[in-house]
Amino acid sequence: MTFPDSNVTNFISKRARARAIDPAFNSVGFGKAHDKGVAPINLGYGMPDQSFFPIKSLQVNLQDSSFEVPRETANRQEIDLKTGLQYASPYGHPSLLKYTREIIERIHSPANDRWDTVITAGGANGIDKCFDLLLDEGDTVLIEEYTFVPILGSVKNIGATVVPLKFDFQSQSGLDIEYLAYVLENWESLYPGKRFPKVLYTIPNGQNPTGFVTDLKSKQKIYDICVQNDIFIIEDDPYGYLELATDKPFDDVEEYLKSLPTSYLSVDKHSRVLRIESFSKVFAPGSRLGFIVAHKDFIEPITNYSVLATGFPSGPSQILINNTITALGGLDGWFKWAIKVRNEYWSRKQAAMKQLLQSSCAKKDQLIVFEPKAGMFISVSLNFPPGSNCLELMSKLSEKTAQHGVTVVPYQTLSPIPDFTKDNCHYVRLTIASAIDHGQLKEAFRRFTSAVEDLFQDLESS
Amino acid sequence: MTFPDSNVTNFISKRARARAIDPAFNSVGFGKAHDKGVAPINLGYGMPDQSFFPIKSLQVNLQDSSFEVPRETANRQEIDLKTGLQYASPYGHPSLLKYTREIIERIHSPANDRWDTVITAGGANGIDKCFDLLLDEGDTVLIEEYTFVPILGSVKNIGATVVPLKFDFQSQSGLDIEYLAYVLENWESLYPGKRFPKVLYTIPNGQNPTGFVTDLKSKQKIYDICVQNDIFIIEDDPYGYLELATDKPFDDVEEYLKSLPTSYLSVDKHSRVLRIESFSKVFAPGSRLGFIVAHKDFIEPITNYSVLATGFPSGPSQILINNTITALGGLDGWFKWAIKVRNEYWSRKQAAMKQLLQSSCAKKDQLIVFEPKAGMFISVSLNFPPGSNCLELMSKLSEKTAQHGVTVVPYQTLSPIPDFTKDNCHYVRLTIASAIDHGQLKEAFRRFTSAVEDLFQDLESS
């Protein structure tokens, strides 16, 4: 431990630190003592009375039940329209915050008690906020060699840069820990003049694109290395709920929760972890809602950024998600819904794996399938002949998949530093999320394997 | 005209210009030619099928009617759940974009045809995006001496600074145009070493806090000065729909639209205007939705910022607003609703004005009321005895209002440069938006005038 656990504020970026909200405005006549016991009437803050809202009530029809969102309710675990359509806290609505804290407590039992949560306007917004919190111009972020590349926008925007780490593709276990240690030990010679990394950005569970899950033992090792080097871990985990490693459908909530991939929070004795969750996969991407788990002293600086950039997260989105959780009977009902989603992903994964493994290109060893342990992506490694030009063959594969009527993602488009991966780019990402049913899913994977066979036939005959 | 109208891209900030989205990722296997006429199945983009969304349908009960949001619809002016809960365009949903373009066309008839609109995550988000688009570190923004100070967060975040302009408090007509010209003509001597302004940020209609409306003739003058000086105008107009100058309730849509305060767009021959609208006042603040009107070449750079910061605006918010407009019968029905909101604000304004003007402190000339021409704020100028310490007396007034049970906003808390306004800070902002009914509104204004009388009594007896 190179700095006291309790003091993380030294690591806040200069930009975020300079961003204290003007206390004069924040007061705006509020918070002043009111004598005489007269309840004050507000002529201060320009908050329209609820009679100005056109919507009287909402009825939400879920797949198996329905609920009403009334103008007003006394139930503190519901957000009524009076509250949900009004100006609101940049931290998020209290009831939803309560749920997010309980989710983290129950699934991940964080290794310290200095954490809190804050609602975000979705996963991408959570990532941008974490980078903003920690990174200054010239800072360096360690990043997986293949990853969710849109995050580069946030890093570049700050004027920071990324340095890629390697996966252990052999064991399919996630980050190559030896390579991580090697990079840090040899930083000066590998990256002369570049600032030593301040942050590791990782998608540890059902990684995009690999589908790898870093197990707890490996997380502990990576964590220890990061702590020794004063590196914060930004854990982006939108896919964890889509656990795929257990070989059956779930029914029991406790059993499901125990099966879920772990979080770095579980080993975070020293408050070096920021966890980003999203409601996109279990609820719906259009909701643009998620949350960050971080040291409690990070929450206000994160929120000060919200205030200037977005105000606060969408009320209708918070209403729909919070009240759906409540209508389902609280978190147990919510997890039951998550199980339903997970079971469908698992069953799609089974069907797609079968289709892939029974294909003649698998039998001819033209491809190796990475069976995902979580998430929505199956990856395939193509066994191109030794000495072939990887980029060129991947480009040919793209033509073939187009001809066969299937869209896929070549790994190289997910490479933050294309030059780093160009000789190891013989991978394709295939999502099981998007097909409208199992029939279409199987047909899509059939088309993909036909495209691969077609390509290898061309290679053999040329 | 000092630069060609058609080329505004030179004025995009360095940060925004560097932010092109990685074309490799954007392609992700899409957009490739598909031979054989086979409709491609998506194994590329990780977009969950709609069967993963827990909500089957929504019923929205408006004040006088109701409508359903189904899973799927063929009506292109409705956003169904399949679309609205899915990943979506950072530009906003096409149907809502269409409405925003029609709103602008119909009300403001822009003076050029190079404009377009883009949906934002609310007014604050729109402001942040416009500043991000135009400002680099060290740039200068002209700003009203009293304004919506949270915007300073965005300016500071970029490393830009603000310089205050003056109001013409005598004529209550908005910005003091002579002072604007004076500042620009004497820039070097008034602000030695400071970069010449690139942007004027103004709330021209129902200004916060003054309630002033800058009329079209004045807008033309201000616009001409800005064009001569290569200054862009960011017009923040959340309050325009709450027109208060016409002395009656409206019923007819055309009459209402003609009465609305004008936009700088109407004189914008040279594409120097960015207009920010919000759905907060006419729909609901919790929706966090609005739009920007700007030169079409500005739209993509604005959107590139969305992609990294928020992804795209909340689907549920877009569903509720877009489908409410459609359910009300399109824009005519929407404007009818706006009239209803406006009429209630107008009637509150009438009631509050009466309460103020009949008070004995008004009769004793202890205060002068600024009757607002639009918006949700009435301002009051206090006639403190000559030579009194303005800040000290305003602080005493705060104590008095607290004692009398009413919260108000002293102008000084809305001053971007408190030192600039400290000797001219004898104003209070009072909102008519927040009271639950006319009874409470009158009681609040009664308490306020009692507090003022109380203060002046103290002054006289001391």
Automatic annotation (TrEMBL), chains A, B:
Signal peptide limits: none
Gene3D superfamilies: Type I PLP-dependent aspartate aminotransferase-like (Major domain)
GO-annotated biological processes: aromatic amino acid family catabolic process; lysine biosynthetic process via aminoadipic acid; tyrosine biosynthetic process
SUPFAM superfamilies the record matches: PLP-dependent transferases
GO molecular function: 2-aminoadipate transaminase activity; aromatic-amino-acid transaminase activity; pyridoxal phosphate binding
Keywords: Aminotransferase, Pyridoxal phosphate, Transferase
Family (UniProt): Belongs to the class-I pyridoxal-phosphate-dependent aminotransferase family.
Official protein name in the record: Aromatic aminotransferase II
